[in-house]
Design goal:
The chain is mainly alpha-helical and 210 residues long. The chain is built from 11 helices and no strands. α2 crosses α7, α6 runs antiparallel to α11 and α8 crosses α9.
Length: 210
Amino acid sequence: MASRSSRARVTRPSADATRERILEAALDLFAELSFDGATTRDIATRAAVTQPLLNYHFSSKDELWRAAVDRLFAALNAALTDRAEGLRGVDEVTVARLMVREFIYFSASHPQLHRIITQECKADGPRMDWLVERHIRDLYDTTTSMFEQLTADGHLPPIPPAHLYYIVTGAGPTMFVLSPECRRLAGIEPTDPEVVEAHADAVCLLLFGH
């Protein structure tokens, strides 16, 4: 028969699960309220943990923000990498189109990504510097290089790659970032799978012509 201490160890929620719950709550609140607007007390309440437990896992709000953002971009990179690995040997236009679709799918399920970037662009300070250098610059360089080659090969209109990047990163996520407005104006639920698919179709049609 197991001892009382071993039973406690088995039934106690894992530290990893608690940490993940805190990160999920932090991501939502930083996206909704901004870094300055979200408090660690709010985050602890949303995560259903005590303030001391949150402080045990994260020594400061800045550390928590960075960990939440790292987690979000890790998920994005994993989604894009998995998609790219499944497209080896496929022509460059198909690869580009399917990668854009994957980005839109991710944006639909993770609107916090673009909300947080928008929040930090408003502040335009050290956190924005960190975001760009740690996460965004590599994505930007990879994407604009792809667009530049596609444009040179005649597969995209003669638009500078930086503009194409912001067309995609603007048009792709906006319906999901502004979902409360979309529900009221268009009378549709942006997170419905068929709506997400139709939006991905529309962005690809505008960009690639098919």
